[in-house]
């Protein structure tokens, strides 16, 4: 893990030779991955984040007043410590009293979650770019995620760029359709620091109350993108 100060993007984080985030545009990734899911269902109360040790998604989840419980499972405590030291404005999410941190393997963690526990599960343990981005979550893991969601619950995760890996996007969509029996959508947004400047997201709902990701029913006002305003545009595919 390598942190340095750039002239154009503020502080930058590299991990395994790939850009993870920059201070200048991290909000685009964090907001879309979080709010496209949370804004699609009424009054989400219980949220699980797997990965996301930087704290940015915690920061975004904490904007939702209906949320009562925010659990995060992060594999490496060093990641949390680095972001708290060098990126306090991102890691501020850890200061929310609703947050509980679990250290360990998210794949193992999700296996032991009681059925129907969470309204939303956000997966940030699979890198959005770089060689490992093409390693899809396996079917057993996705089945564990779906089981841990309530009926009509939603999952979001990064899903590569159409510009470079459209075949991975197609495989990811097909992969998710085998498990999730509710709405399945692919969204994308721009993150200038990432290769091609574009990153995608999968949005999946379990069977139950219908979820329409293109028409948010739980909008939130934020100063940058605002998922309530952007959803229809980023989900045009």
UniProtKB/TrEMBL annotation:
Gene3D superfamilies: Spermidine synthase, tetramerisation domain, Vaccinia Virus protein VP39. SUPFAM superfamilies: S-adenosyl-L-methionine-dependent methyltransferases (SSF53335). InterPro entries: PABS, PABS_CS, SAM-dependent_MTases_sf, Spermi_synthase, Spermidine_synt_N_sf. The keyword Ribosomal protein does not apply. It comes from the Eukaryota. It holds the Pfam family Spermine_synth. GO terms for molecular function: spermidine synthase activity. The active site is at 124 (proton acceptor). Keywords: Polyamine biosynthesis, Transferase. One of its GO terms (cellular component) is cytosol. Residues 1-206 form the PABS domain. One of its GO terms (biological process) is spermidine biosynthetic process. Belongs to the spermidine/spermine synthase family. PANTHER family: SPERMIDINE SYNTHASE 2-LIKE (PTHR11558:SF28), SPERMIDINE/SPERMINE SYNTHASE (PTHR11558). HAMAP family: Spermidine_synth. This is PABS domain-containing protein.
